[in-house]
Amino acid sequence: MKKRLLCIFMIIVMIVPFVFASCGKSESDKMKEIILGGEDEAIDRAMTLSIWLPTDAITVKGQTADLSELSQSEKLTLSQEYPEVFDFLKRVDDVEDAINKLLISKNYYTNIDIVPVNNEYYEEALAARFAEIDEDSDPFQMNARGDSAEYENDVVTEQVGNNVLYNLLYRPVDKNQLDIFVIRDYGEYDGYEQYRSYIEKGYILPLNKTTEATSENPFPKTGYLNDSGAYASINKLIRTEFMNQMKVNDLIYAIPNNHLYASQKYVAIDKKTFNEHGAEFNLNLIKNFNDCVDYIEAIGALDDENIVPFYENAQMPAFDLADLDLLTYGDSALNEICSDTSFVEFVMAYKTLNENGMIKSELAQGQTAAVTIFEGTSVEEINAMAKDYYLVPVGTHSVSSNETYSSMFAISTFTLDYNRSMKILNLLISDDEIVTMLQYGIENEDYTISTEIRDGEEVEVLKLNKDTAYIMNNLYTGSSYYTYPHAEAAIDDWDAVKDANLNADISKYVNINYFISSAKLTEEELLLIEMREKLKALAIEAFDDISQMSLEEFLSFVEFAQGNNEFIDEKYAFAYDFATNDNYSALISLYDEYLK
After folding, report:
1. Which of 147, 179, 206, 544 could form a disulfide with 251, with the two C-beta atoms 3.0–4.6 Å apart?
2. Measured between alpha carbons, how far is residue 16 from residues 13, 30, 34, 552 in Å?
3. Ordered structural domains, the chain, with CATH
């Protein structure tokens, strides 16, 4: 933030004459060697890298994020007209300094310059910055300057009594420099469209390129995301399926931030009821709704008016558990519905319970639901529910495009140094100190960590200082797994969320809408997609039909659908025809060609 920040990388020594008596070198030269290394011990160049972040805090459109760039009169005007903005930017300065001290202690020789921009105009401000840089500079030009002699380390000295204080001088961010930034899905800005746009403009660096640059492909060889090497652990920290979604022509240009990607549906089993009446059932063997049927029937047999065997919340119908990935491009829809064994078994179990009076849609005062369905859409919801219920993750949530591309870190091709930017990016993915500080600020100033007893266990809980001006969104400050989910939260609260993410399904066709809107398709190809849209609508209708059927009607429906002979209902004839002729394979080939 402070553009010529003299970072506190200090060695204070007494000037003892005999220490410097040899080699004819001055005391200053000797001390520089201690700090900067000699001819054979050169350290990394000291530099400053920018990190652009969306923030929930209020900022001023077009206003610099650096108070140090403002004159005293400009600072006074800002503090009077926008006191909240002034306090926030001042606090960002303080947090930035603290992070830089931490980076120095880790021998990174790198300062960061945090550029926070309010959510409302982050994309607009970033686009303007890129356009401004692109007009004056070419991609890769800053990195070439970073490798040049003009960026060699420098020091300043200060005599303090009998001691000489040496500080490493960090170069300020250049006007044509932009290093690390967030790409996201927000409002009108589609995450995947933005990602592709940055790639097509040549603004972001491929992180797994294994070949040298050519005139046709000027991107430098990086190989950061190889399975071996300094950053191999990233491939273990980020789920493979999410990393694969970053690939464009097999190149990965951004790293997704770990967070709650998708809501998770659970069979929720009341702890008190199960502990009292579930002795003959093994909780570890309950993996889905079907596994709960015998337990639900056992509770129903108790005939206890205070316990409802299965409570079906109107906001979370049990039948939603059976929601297959029917809308995924490439599925045969109707045939899949009736050939999926787990789906058929679920519907049979659900309808049997319903016809035996085991399912209630209302809870009277004082009644307890032995089993219900719960959908967790946030860390807070999941952990609040887990206090009273055993949660069994069921079904698979198909992660949408906006969830997949909700938050990604990328390195700009206008960065001062690719390797150094990757080092800092790696910290944002894997270092709990850096991520926590970037998200919550300085401990005991912006937040405190206290110890509490929760569910009989001692946990550390983060509490925000109510007066702090430092406000960030943990979706955009690095891997959320490496810090606290929110205020009043324990870091262990991520455990259930990690399970939810591992249980989520990511279709390879998640970006198909981008393909349809941006690709130049022939009339035949457009017709295929139109037919698929019709098939999707029919699948939804079929699913709704099944939810309304009695058990007997459903069994009859499965019988004729699996027979693949004559469909009793003509409205399903199109689905059968489409799935069994060349149209289906042609559609799959079309999508697969796009996904290469």
Report:
1. 206
2. 9, 12, 15, 97
3. 1-203+404-446+465-492 (no CATH), 264-324+336-402 (3.40.190), 512-595 (no CATH)
